[in-house]
C-alpha cells in the first residue's frame, strides 16, 4: 500500500569544489565532516519558504533538521558537472508532463514510440519512459484481504490476516462516521465565525481571541482550532472521507477485484510483458508517484514550485503501486525492469505487512545489489518497530541480508529535539538504516500543482536523491559504497526522542536506527570525495 500520511487523530475527530566530470580524478575534500555538539531549537514557526524547503536546510545554520542540500550545492558542487544518473521510481503513476518534471525524464531511445513493437527486445512494448505493471487499474485490496478472500484457512498467517482485517474494517467504519460527523459541523462553524468576525479571511489569531458566553460560537471556535492545530482544512477532511470510503469499498472488501492485466499474480511466468507503456496516473488523485519523483528530481532553481535533491537525474517511471497493496509479482518485475534498463538508484515508497511471494521480491533486491544498484525503501507509517513487526519488502532472512545496497529510511519532522521523529514513522535498530525529512514535505502533484504530504514515502526519495548525487559526482563509487557513505556520513543524533507519537515513550535516537544518524547530503559528498581517493 502507498505510504502517505497527514497528521490527524482520525479516531477522535559538506567546502571545496568537486571535479568528477570527463573522467578526471575528483578533488579530495579536506573539509571535515560536520557533527552536532549543541544545536539550538527552532523556536519560531517555519516561514512559508522554510516549509516548502525544510528538508534541504542545514541543522546548524537554520536550526531545522534538514539534509544540508542547499549548503552542499552552494559550497561543494556549485559550477560542477556530474554524470547523468537514471533513478527508477517504483510507485503509482507519474505525471510526466508536469512543468517541474518534464525535463528530467528517462527516455528509452531504443524504442520507437507507439508502433506496437518491442524494438529493443526487452520484453516490453512501447516502454518509452518506463512501464506500467498495473494496466488501467488503480484501486486494489490489501494483501491481508486477498489472503482472507482466497479462503484457504491453512495458508500462512491466515488467522492473523482475518483478525486484522476484521479489526481494520471496524475501525475504518467508525473513523468514517467520525469524519462524516466532522464534515457536517465544519461549514456551519466556519460560517458562524465569519459572521462574528465580520470577514471571510480570518486568521488563527482572530479565532483565538474570541471570548464569548455563546455555547454555539465556542463550539465553532473549538472546531476551527482543531483544524488549525493540525494544519488541516475542510478540503483535507473531505480527502480523508474519500480515502476511508475507498478503504472500505476496495482495500477491505473481500469481494472486490481490481486487477485488470489479465495475468495470474501468483504465477511468475504467466503473460510476460503484461501491462502497458502508459506511466501516467489514471486520475488526478493518484498523486503519490508524482510527489515522490519531485522530491528526488524536480528541476532545481527554475522559478517553479519545488527543488529536487538531485540534479543530473533522469526519472524512470514504473507504475506498480495501486491504491491498496502492491502485488509481489509487480514489485519484483519492476525492480528487475529498472536494473535491466540502466537505473543506478531505485526508490520504493511502498510497503505492507503481508507478502505471500516475498522471496520473489527479495531475489529482485539481491539482483539489484548484484548489479550495482542502490535500492532505497520507505520504512513504513505504522509507528512500529520493524525489527519485530513484519514489513515488506525486506532484504534479509532472520537479519541476514541478501545484498548490501538496500537502504530502509525512517521519517523526520521539521523540528530538532524530542519531537524530531515523525510520530507515524516505523523504526528499528536492525532494520531501519537512517532517518531523513519525511513529515510535511512540499513537492509536485499532477497537473502542474504542488502539495505538502508526509510519510516515510517522502523520506525515502530524499535519501534516493543523495544516492543519485553521489553516483553523479563520483560515478566510480560502487552502490555498496554509496550505502556505506549515506549511513556513515549522517549527523549523529544524541538527544532522546518521542517514539510513535507517544509522549510517554521516550528513547535515545540511536536505538531506533542502525546508523543512529539523520542523512546529510553535505557530509555525504565530503565522505564520497575521501572514499573515492
Please give the CATH architecture of the largest domain.
Answer: 3-Layer(aba) Sandwich
Which segments are poorly predicted (pLDDT under 50) over 5 or more consecutive residues? 1-28
Oligomer type: single chain
Q: What's the CATH topology label of the largest domain?
A: Rossmann fold
Rg, rounded, reads: 23 Å
**Structural class by SSE content:** alpha/beta
Read across the widest sheet, the strand sequence of neighbours is: 2-3-1-4-5-8-9
Number of domains: 2
CATH superfamily of the largest domain: Peptidase S8/S53 domain
| Helix-strand string | HHHEEHHHHHHEHEHEEEEEEEHHEEEEH
Nearest-integer average pLDDT: 92
Tell me the span between the first and last alpha carbons. Answer: 42 Å
Biggest β-sheet strands, sense, barrel:
7 strands, parallel
Individual helix count: 14
Query: Can you tell me the CATH class of the largest domain?
Result: Alpha Beta
Number of strands: 15
Q: Specify the helix fraction band.
A: 25-40%
What does this 3D model show about the protein?
The protein is α/β, with parallel strands linked by helices and 533 residues long. Helix 5 packs across helix 7 and helix 9 (288-297) runs parallel beside helix 12. The protein has a seven-stranded parallel β-sheet with strand order 2-3-1-4-5-8-9, sandwiched between helices. Strands 6-7 form a two-stranded antiparallel sheet. It has a two-stranded antiparallel sheet with strand order 10-11. Mean pLDDT is 92; it is low at 1-28. It has 14 helices and 15 strands. It has two domains: 40-140 and 273-532, Peptidase S8/S53 domain (Rossmann fold), CATH 3.40.50; 158-251. The protein is 34% helix and 12% strand.
Amino acid at each position: 500500500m502507498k505510504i502517505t500520511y497527514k497528521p490527524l487523530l482520525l479516531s477522535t475527530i559538506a567546502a571545496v569544489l568537486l571535479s568528477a566530470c570527463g573522467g578526471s580524478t575528483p578533488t579530495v575534500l579536506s573539509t571535515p565532516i560536520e557533527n552536532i555538539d549543541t544545536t539550538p531549537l527552532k523556536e519560531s514557526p517555519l516561514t512559508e519558504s522554510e516549509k516548502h524547503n525544510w528538508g534541504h536546510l542545514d541543522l546548524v545554520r537554520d536550526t531545522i533538521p534538514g539534509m544540508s542540500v542547499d549548503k552542499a550545492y552552494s559550497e561543494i558542487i556549485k559550477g560542477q558537472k556530474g554524470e547523468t544518473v537514471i533513478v527508477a521510481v517504483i510507485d503509482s503513476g507519474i505525471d510526466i508532463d508536469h512543468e517541474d518534471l518534464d525535463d528530467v525524464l528517462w527516455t528509452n531511445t531504443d524504442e520507437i514510440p507507439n508502433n506496437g513493437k518491442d524494438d529493443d527486445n526487452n520484453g516490453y512494448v512501447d516502454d518509452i519512459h518506463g512501464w506500467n505493471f498495473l494496466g488501467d487499474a488503480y484501486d486494489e485490496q490489501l494483501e491481508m484481504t486477498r489472503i482472507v478472500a482466497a479462503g484457504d484457512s491453512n495458508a500462512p498467517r491466515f488467522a492473523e490476516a482475518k483478525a486484522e482485517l476484521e479489526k481494520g474494517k471496524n475501525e475504518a467504519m467508525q473513523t468514517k462516521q467520525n469524519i462524516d460527523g466532522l464534515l457536517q459541523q465544519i461549514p456551519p462553524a466556519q460560517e458562524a465565525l465569519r459572521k462574528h468576525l465580520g470577514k471571510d479571511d480570518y486568521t488563527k489569531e482572530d479565532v483565538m481571541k474570541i471570548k464569548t458566553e455563546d455555547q454555539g460560537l465556542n463550539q465553532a471556535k473549538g472546531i476551527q482550532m482543531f483544524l488549525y492545530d493540525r494544519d488541516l482544512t475542510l478540503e483535507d477532511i473531505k480527502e480523508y472521507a474519500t480515502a476511508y470510503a475507498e478503504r472500505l469499498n476496495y482495500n477491505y472488501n473481500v469481494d472486490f477485484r481490481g486487477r485488470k492485466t489479465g495475468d495470474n499474480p501468483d504465477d511468475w511466468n504467466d503473460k510476460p510483458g503484461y501491462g502497458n507503456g502508459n506511466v501516467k496516473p489514471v486520475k488526478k488523485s493518484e498523486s503519490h508517484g508524482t510527489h515522490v519523483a519531485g522530491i528526488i528530481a524536480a528541476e532545481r532553481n527554475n522559478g517553479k514550485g519545488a527543488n529536487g535533491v538531485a540534479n543530473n537525474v533522469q526519472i524512470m517511471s514504473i507504475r506498480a503501486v495501486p491504491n491498496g497493496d502492491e502485488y509481489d509479482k509487480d514489485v519484483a518485475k519492476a525492480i528487475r525492469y529498472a536494473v535491466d534498463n540502466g537505473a543506478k538508484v531505485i526508490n520504493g515508497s511502498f510497503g505492507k505487512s503481508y507478502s505471500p511471494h516475498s522471496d520473489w521480491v527479495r531475489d529482485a533486491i539481491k539482483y539489484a545489489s548484484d548489479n550495482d544498484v542502490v535500492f532505497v525503501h520507505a520504512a513504513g507509517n505504522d509507528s512500529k518497530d520493524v525489527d519485530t513487526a513484519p514489513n515488506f519488502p525486506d532484504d534479509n532472512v532472520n537479519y541476514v541480508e541478501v545484498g548490501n545496497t538496500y537502504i530502509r529510511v525512517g521519517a523526520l519532522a521539521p523540528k530538532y529535539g524530542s519531537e524530531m521523529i515523525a510520530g507515524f514513522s516505523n523504526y528499528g535498530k536492525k532494520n531501519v538504516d537512517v532517518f531523513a525529512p519525511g513529515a510535511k514535505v512540499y513537492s509536485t502533484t499532477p497537473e502542474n500543482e504542488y502539495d505538502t504530504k508526509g510519510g516515510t514515502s517522502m523520506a525515502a526519495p530524499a535519501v534516493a536523491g543523495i544516492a543519485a548525487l553521489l553516483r553523479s559526482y563520483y560515478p566510480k563509487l560502487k552502490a555498496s559504497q554509496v550505502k556505506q557513505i549515506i549511513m556513515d556520513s549522517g549527523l549523529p543524533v544524541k538527544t532522546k526522542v518521542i517514539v510513535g507519537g507517544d509522549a510517554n515513550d521516550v528513547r535515545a535516537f540511536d536505538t531506533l536506527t542502525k546508523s543512529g544518524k539523520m542523512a546529510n547530503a553535505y557530509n555525504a559528498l565530503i565522505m564520497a570525495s575521501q572514499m573515492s581517493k
